Amino acid sequence: MQWETVIGLEVHLQLATCSKIFSGSATTFGAEPNTQASAVDLAMPGMLPVLNAKAVRYAVMFGLGIGAEIGRRSVFDRKNYFYPDLPKGYQISQFEAPIVGRGTFEIQLEDGSTRSIGITRAHLEEDAGKSLHEDFHGQTGIDLNRAGTPLLEIVSEPDLRNAAEAVAYLKALHSLVTYLEISDGNMAEGSMRCDINISLRPKGSDALGTRAEIKNVNSFRFVEKAIRHEIERQADILEDGGRVVQETRLYDADLDETRPMRSKEVANDYRYFPEPDLLPVVIDDEYIEAIAAGLPELPAQKRHRFVEQYGLGNYDANVLADSRALANYFETVVTRCGDAKIAANWVQVELLGQLNRSETGIEDCPVSAVALGGLIQRILDNSISGKIAKQVFEAMWQGEGSADQVIEARGLKQVSDSGALEAMVDQVIAGSASQVEQYLAADEERRKKLVGFFVGQVMKLSRGQANPQMVNELLAKKLV
Amino acid sequence: MITLRPPLPRRQPFPVANTMAIEQNEIEKIAELARIRIAPDQIGQVTARITEILGMVDQLQAVDTTDVEPMANPLDAIQRLRADEVTEENRREAFQAIAPAVENGLYLVPRVVE
Amino acid sequence: MYDKSVAQLVAGLRDKQFSSVELSRCFLERIARLDSTYNSFISVDETAVLAAAGAADKRIAAGNAATLTGIPIAHKDIFCTDGMRTSCGSRMLDNFVPPYDATLIAHFNREGAVVLGKTNMDEFAMGSSNENSFYGAVSNPWDTSLVPGGSSGGSAAAVAAMLAPAATGTDTGGSIRQPAAFCGITGIKPTYGRVSRLGMVAFASSLDQAGPMAHSAEDCALLLNCMAGHDPLDSTSSELPAEDYCAGLGGSLQGLRIGLPREYFGDGLDTATARCIQDSLKELEAQGATLVEVSLPHSHLTIPTYYIIAPAEASTNLSRFDGVRYGHRCANPVDLHDLYTRTREEGFGAEVKRRILVGTYALSAGYYDAYYKKAQQVRRLIKQDFVDCFSQVDVIAGPTTPGPAFALGAKSDDPLAMYLEDIYTLAANLAGLPGMSVPAGLVGGRPVGLQLIGNYFDEARLLNVGHRFQQATDWHQRRPATAPGGTQ
Predict the structure, then answer these.
(1) Which residues of chain B neighbour A54 with C-beta distances below 8 Å?
(2) Which residues does residue A125 pair with via DSSP β-bridges, in sequence order?
(3) How far is it, in rounded angstroms, from Cα C85 to Cα C82?
(4) Element at C187 (helix H, strand E)
């Protein structure tokens, strides 16, 4: 049978506040265990939560970013369960009245096409602590530094159909939240974690199949692998006439497989009810309008503008608009050099290539956008050739200065002096009698190919600095 | 001296509904949710007591609450927001001095199986 | 000194008739000598008391004393005290020494008051007789075979027996007013949100409120001045500025409209107690107040409503007691589940476990709408009754309890009978209104209380009514005979 995959994602996004959602503890990553766990975070008796204004603001920014309804009166609830990394025995979350309601979200697929993905809701909640299982004589160690870090849980509709779409969705989400600067989006540090709901159904069917939930997958690559694996597993079961069990599974990256969680959680009954230590959060028009007015241009808007304003293709626009820093870089290069197409090419090929090879972020790029724009200008004004420009770029990367400084210091300026070029052309022609003979004997078509030899020789003689266009013109004049 | 009108007809304070008897296994389920062990010789008595209490609260079922907004806070107040500032310092030593089991700054519990 | 009011002690310290150290020693000595009879204190740290008293004396000498500087005050063992065991009457917290103060304690410390000790209470404030304490029952100083009421029974008994000039308590369903009534003292539960809940071990978050317990309304006003106010660390704390509760104490009652809910004078109210209440109302009438009959038609629903909401909130408030970070932990847990279930089995007493189970049930899947949501809806109906009443009257008056204190053990095996004790007090908590109990007579040598319920944030008026009543009566000056120095 042909199966269709149905995927919905729940993303837990850590918000980039400096203090926790309900206490004044720091949220810095990587601190010594339990040094950022205050009496509130430890659920000491009598301790009470007070809501962080910035967490609310960030949630609203996200809601506006996906065009969602903002909950004018959102309510916090207690989600009750016992676990050692959950000090109060309940998580403060939002159940019936989330701060962000339904919205939609445009994602861009590899082939450049776009899809609209529904967001069911997004709500604020607190993160749990961490359990460490190593080296405690068979016991588990609990670090509550992370407990109380603000999370925005973003729940998608089951609109995704394969691993690639899921990854595209996550990348687009990552791009949005980093644009908004509401999260650092650092997946390695767990700033963005993903639960995957996945089920199969016969192609053409509208009914949803039984789903499995894969918990806590925290890299794009693992999401892709976990989904591929899970599709295979469920398809095998269904093909054999079996039934998929509704359960929570873990993705094991080492074994590249999902397996059921072993914890003997009795049928979950979270006993949600309104958190009596907090009051409803009321958001008015003025607050929303002020936030809306301060929103930056978002990835989709930027993408569309890049296509229109610069005449870029969808793919290029998508790559360049991926992060605000890269997009800003690109636009600075364009402003400096005046040619969007060549700028787009340089940023994507040379710059991103170099950044990837050296595992450097755009923020730490040793060549500034203005400097790269300056380099491209030298290509455009024929001071150097594209090939030489790559050498200059290398040197700039190594810190040898601006394009002009490198060109000057290394004497790379293109030779456009017609006298000097003529001398070189003459020298090459004089030393290549047989090639000249061949050339002269050839027809028009063949000549076009043979002329390359002479150009190459002149370039070699000029150590690449001859202006290729002028060399061509001179050769055309002299080879008669 | 004020004379009050005769009070409303006497209401049975606790009309205990015998029909709502809760099953013992339901109490066991609830106790598991609440993570409270109940010794086997006490489960019968606990069930009886809770049945009485639930019977008493069952009189609410008769009240018409159509269109009545549930009241979570007596003042119907709204949430104040706190500025995003770090106001807490590290007090691990003081907090862990009263903890039953700690090592290397971590709270210890029996092995957690995921 | 022990038989003086707080107001008199404040004057005595100011006028250097005695020092805070002398005053504190006097109460420490009485506690040491007499409290074996009452069991009203769980913890008393003499060294800390005398150190605080010494510091207060220095401050008085330096001329920068605040009103309560040097006054020893007993605190219910529900308020966290930095460096001093805070047990909440439970085995679960028998070893718990918080490294922080409750906001309320911090207020008293800033004022220079002396923490005299921590008083006995029903475990986690769940009870109406103070028999549910891990530290044993408290006896009523008026008759040691009787209960003192609960859950602030230790505070009430300590004040009644003159082991402390005043005390703090908490009131979730009557836990200040009922023991105040049973022990012949004055106690006020302020409007929900008037006094910070931070550092007060939570029972039912939307109902809990701390308040003062003392001999007189005037003393309560002095304490409340120090307790009330906005706390930015308690989201449910009111931002309304606190008042000077002493300022209006002497105001006339002329023209005051007092509502008498007929539901509070019906069946179930002890006849002799009713007579005391009627006499008290006559006194208020004599002072110019008008008595108006009113109705609180949903009164009969307060007990079922309360016994869903309070246990539901409590069931999850008490989830933090899991043996991991503080408090009791069972010996040698074999696994995590064993750690949780055995720690909580051992750490909690019967009534607390019962309420956790009821609350868990009321919130569990399939029952939430029928129980919890329903109760929250009825709660609004109950509040609306009061809102309607306060459009006609200024205060509401009635009995605090259906009768005087009952015998120790009389109801301890019958939770439903015990719950009935709070029938007149629960509504003020459900509605969030301030409520006060003032001594209103003796029935067979047992005190009874007049309850006054005010509109939101109208504590000053309640205290004014209580004070004027106490200017004309002497019930609040009677002292139990079992306590040396007693007058009755």
Answers:
(1) 83-84
(2) A151
(3) 8
(4) strand C186-189
Q: Give the distance, in angstroms, between the CA of residue A369 and the centroid of all CA atoms in the same chain.
A: 20
Report, in angstroms and rounded to the nearest whole number, the Rg of chain C calculated over CA atoms. 21
Q: Over the Cα atoms of chain A, what is R_g? A: 30
Coil/strand/helix, residue C64: coil
Residue A320 neighbours by CB under 8 Å, 6+ apart? A306, A312, A326, A327, A330, A344, A347, A348
Asked if residue B61 belongs to a domain, the reply is: yes
Any C CB within 8 A of B12 CB:
no
The whole-angstrom separation of Cα A164 and Cα A110 is 8
Mutate to test the interface with B, among C172, C284, C325 (most CBs of B within 10 A): C325
Residues of chain B contacting residue C97, judged by C-beta atoms under 8 Å apart:
98
Which residues sit opposite C242 in a β-bridge?
Answer: none
In a domain, B91, yes or no: no
CB A137 within 8 Å of CB A29 = no
So what's the pLDDT on residue B21?
65
Residues 6+ apart with CB under 8 A from C82: C98, C99, C100, C101, C105
Q: Taking the CB of residue A130, how many other CB atoms lie within 10 A of it? A: 16
Domain membership flag for residue B84: no
User: What is the C-alpha separation between A406 and A367, in angstroms, rounded?
Assistant: 13
> Considering CB atoms only, which of B53, B58, B77 is closest to C358?
B53
Amino acid (1-letter code) at residue A250:
L
- The predicted-structure confidence for C442-483, as pLDDT tens digits, reads as follows 999 999 999 999 999 999 999 999 999 999 999 999 999 888
Q: Show Cβ contacts of residue C452 under 8 Å, excluding neighbours closer than 6 positions.
A: C395, C396, C397, C435, C436, C437, C438, C462, C465, C466
The domain total for chain B is: 1
Q: What mean pLDDT comes out for the span A51-61?
A: 98
- The pTM of this model reads 0.91
CATH class label, C1-488: alpha beta
The distance of B50 to chain A (nearest Cα, Å) reads: 19
Q: Are C172 and C208 in contact (CB under 8 A)?
A: yes
In CATH, what number is assigned to the domain containing residue B1?
1.10.20.60
How close is the nearest chain B Cα to the Cα of C408, in Å?
20
CA distance A186 to chain C (A): 30
A14, A127 contact by CB (below 8 A): yes
Short-list A317, A387, A248, A266, CA closest to A106:
A317
Sheet holding B106-110, edge to edge: A130-132, A139-143, B106-110, B102-103
Instruction: Using the predicted structure, report yes or no on whether residue A48 has a pLDDT greater than 70.
Output: yes
Enclosing H/E stretch for A315: helix A314-320
Nearest to B113 among A26, A139, A263 (CB): A263
Alpha carbons C395 and C291: distance in angstroms, whole number: 10
What does the alpha-carbon distance between residue C80 and residue C22 come to, in Å, rounded to a whole number? 26
Residue B20's pLDDT band (boundaries 50, 70, 90)? low
Token look-up 């990552």 returns A174
Q: Is residue B100 part of a domain?
A: no
Quote ipTM for the complex: 0.96
C299 in catalytic set: no
Where are chain C's structural domains?
1-488
Strand (E) or helix (H) holding C158: helix C153-160
Q: Half-sphere exposure of residue C151, counting CA atoms within 13 Å on the CB side?
A: 30
Using a pLDDT cut of 70, give the percent of chain C over it.
99
Touching subunits for chain B (3+ Cβ pairs under 8 A): A, C
* Strand order from edge to edge, sheet including C41-43: C41-43, C114-119, C72-76, C166-171, C209-214, C186-189, C435-443, C446-454, C395-399, C257-261, C290-294
Domains located in chain A, CATH noted: 3-290 (no CATH), 297-410 (no CATH), 418-478 (1.10.10)
Which residues fall within 8 angstroms of residue A73, CB to CB, at 6 or more apart?
A97, A280, A281, A282, A283
